[in-house]
Amino acid sequence: MSTEQLAATALAAFDQMVNASPGFRSRPGQRDMAERIAQTMAGVSLGEHPKPERAIAVIQAGTGVGKSAAYASTMVAMALALKTRVIISTATVALQEQLMTKDLPALAAVLETPFVFALAKGRGRYVCKFKLDRLVGLDADAAQSAGEDLFGPDEDTPPPRAAYTSQLQGEDPQERRFKLYETLAVGLTANQWDGDRDSLPEQPDPRDWSTVAAERHTCTARHCPRYRDCSYYNARTKLAEAHVIVANHDLVLASLGMKTLPDLDNCLVVFDEGHHLPAVALDQFSSAMDLSNLRWLDKLPKALHEVSEKIQMTLEQDVTTLAQQLKGALMDLGRLLMDYLKSSGAGFEGVHRFSAGVLPAQLLEPMALIQGHSGGLSKALEALGAELKLRSKEDPAQALPNSLMYARLGQLAPRLTHVVSTSTLMLEHGPQPLAKWLKADSSSGLVVLTAHACPIVPGDLLRQYLWSQVRGAVVTSASLTSCGSFDYYLQEAGLNHLPHVSTLEVASPFNYRTQGELIVVETQTDPKNAEAFTQEMVQELMADLQLVTRGALALFTSRVQMRAAVDALPPRLLEVVLVQGQMSRARLLGAHQARVEAGQPSVIFGLQSFGEGLDLPGRLCETVFIAKLPFSPPSDPVEEARAEWLKTVGRDPFSELVVPATGIKLLQWTGRAIRTEEDHATVICYDRRLLRQSYGRRMLQGLPPYAVLRRVAGVVQAL
Q1: At the N or C end, where does the chain have fewer CB atoms within 10 A?
Q2: Percentage helix, strand, coil for the chain under 3-state DSSP, each rounded to 5
């Protein structure tokens, strides 16, 4: 099939889908998006090729364009024609659910060529039947002991606050876990449950689930006695049969080179909600090690010795001495780092970053010892694990005892891996520094000290590990431009200066000038004067809340700021406002909808996570209040390190990073206001810098074309 024929086939599928949609409205922007995808992807060469053709289409599609229909129809039709597959990666569960329950079923109903679609999840979302068998086959006390020894979380890991609450209420955690495991086992036996955590009627306590969750380090895969009916590998089999795989960004990046998903050079890929990719990349390639909870190092040599003796394999390393030396070095480092935290004023709660990624001289030797000792232990553990897998392969009759031993080693492997990777990054130096910092956290009631290291430029990571493999991809979102340009996103995502990257901005079908307005409030106080500004902003907000008759959303940049607003609520508004964190997100949104549908006013108070992905059409959100421009907290160690590095090379981090990053957040926040062609909404921003400062006007250029007004002393003025 020629390039022109492929493009025509993909576009015909789009036309077929939209024409079959009930109540379809022509959206020129949606068709523009479909045409760009069809034309750019048609020239891609997949699989083995001496000089492969690549194409990456970066498309910003405003709210209401219908981007999922545009990319799903064209990419799926093209993949079917090429006899390949499509990965659709998202950042949120909500979009995955929309694709799996609405968009893909609708497409499957109209395409002539049938296709199968499946949802890809991480291994930890599935139960390990081997672990569950071991625990349920014992009595409660024995199961508790076995779980802690083989599968459970370390007992020195501070439990979450929920655990303290349950203890205060007299709940026995051991009894709760045993009942849960019995219930799970019965559900599996009766074929009433498929082993997927998300399909349980009630979500279990995370600590209880972690004991029986499938995980890479404790899994012998095809050598496990329960491999044939393993929930995770059964799901993997369904993925192998699927033409379309829905995944998330974390899983796609974590799976690079691991064969969990199709090879990216032999399939088509969509990254929806693509503005999240840079942050996900930094998270994937960062590392941290715990310097407080070290009792696992007492278990490790014992486990290594017992396993090596059972299989009669001689360890090349003196693991007992190495473990003692590693524990001593970690304790020494912990004491030194606590001194640094105290001297920096952080105390038992806070963060201390090492300037320019350079560790003080007195920390280099203990860090090098940690790297050396942990590396030696890691080699011993890997050698034993490889031998256990080999013996299971050669003698399947030994699969059960070998799997038990492998699981015991695997339970300790993640902690050791974190120590190896973090100490290595801590000692790494290059032309581009890493962010390196310490964190003390006492929220659990115990002081937990951790050391962290992270690259500072996500684009470099994505270019090296992701885009080097991808042949054909669509990257899309409602917020890829900032201040009216793609430049910032292309740099952050590692797509700048690549010849096979094209960009397209598709405007929303909404008429923002007639459907909405943006009012900027001129406060007397400078927003930089945080305390005084918050007081004045809260006064203005309280007056505006009195006028709300239906649904509204108030977005704050910090918990302190939101708490100040909550504390200032008069009695009449206490029954009107719903605050993020008071109940689950689903319950809060349900309560909000019920109030509005009953003709009552309802206002949601939320933070950053409520400024994105929240769909409140019509009366559910007729006003969006923005307390302050959503600049990131200045204390973020990665952003601090990157700004510091940019200054050393003569660049302006505020203009280059801070302003465009804030512009994207502001675009998301204002995007909560108008969700359909029938909506009419007002955005009220209490930060005068949006009009007064040049960087504020830059951000304004990247927002939808609202009618912009200024409010001074309660009087609204046209600009």
Answers
A1: C
A2: 55, 15, 35
Q: Please say whether the beta carbons of 376 and 419 come within 8 A.
A: no
pLDDT recorded at residue 441: 87
Reported as a single tens digit per residue, the pLDDT across 536-565 is 999 999 999 999 999 999 999 999 999 999
Which run of H or E residues covers position 57?
strand 55-61
Q: Encode pLDDT of 20-61 as tens digits.
A: 887 777 788 999 999 999 999 999 999 998 899 999 999 999
> Are 3-116+242-282+458-506 and 512-718 in the same CATH fold?
yes
Question: Sign of the C-alpha dihedral, residues 337, 340, 342, 345?
Answer: negative
- HEC profile of 397-414: HHHHHHHHHHHHHHHHHH
Architecture in CATH of 3-116+242-282+458-506: 3-Layer(aba) Sandwich (3.40)
> For 567-587, what is the mean pLDDT?
94
Answer for the pair 75, 86: CB distance below 8 angstroms, yes or no. yes
> SS3 for 521?
strand
* pTM of the full structure: 0.90
How far is the C-alpha of 467 from the C-alpha of 473, rounded, in Å?
9
Per residue in 185-239, pLDDT (tens digit) is: 999 999 999 999 999 988 898 889 988 999 999 999 998 989 999 999 999 999 9
